[in-house]
Amino acid sequence: MTERAKVLLTGRPGIGKTTAIQRLLAAAHIEAGGFYTGEIRRGGQRLGFSLNLLSGKSLVLASVEIAGRWRVGKYGVDVRTFEAAVVPEIEEAIAAARLVVMDEIGKMELFSERFREVARRALDSPVPVLGTILSRPHPFADEIRKRRDVRIIEVTLANRDSLPAELMKIFA
Description:
The protein has 5 helices and 9 strands; from the N terminus they run E-H-E-E-E-E-E-H-E-H-E-H-E-H. The chain is an alpha/beta fold and 172 residues long.
């Protein structure tokens, strides 16, 4: 694995960013820590988003049923649960020098100051980082995208199927 490789995927929602990361992890059997998000659907309707830790635990990140001050559209975001699960997961991956996966650095996740801090620590560390980042302007995301040590790859219909193999060359 290339030490200090820092790669963030960007692109429109549903283009295949998370799928590319999952395919890399499945094919390469890379020791990794971190998280990815997914949709919670019932009866064809999206009701929220799951938080899936690479250590195996799955929690609710956001839901139409969550009330509170942190909201993205119709979804309430459970920032406290997110922090309690994700921050130790990333800290442990850094300490063990494993690949840190952050899928995603997005609107919901960026409500958390603790997540922003641990994301900076991961990017400043010698461990490799693979994640996704929102494409829209956001002060923290803009800061990350400007880093010289971070490679941004836009996921498109043209490259999404070949992307896991490209990531394999970087991280395996």
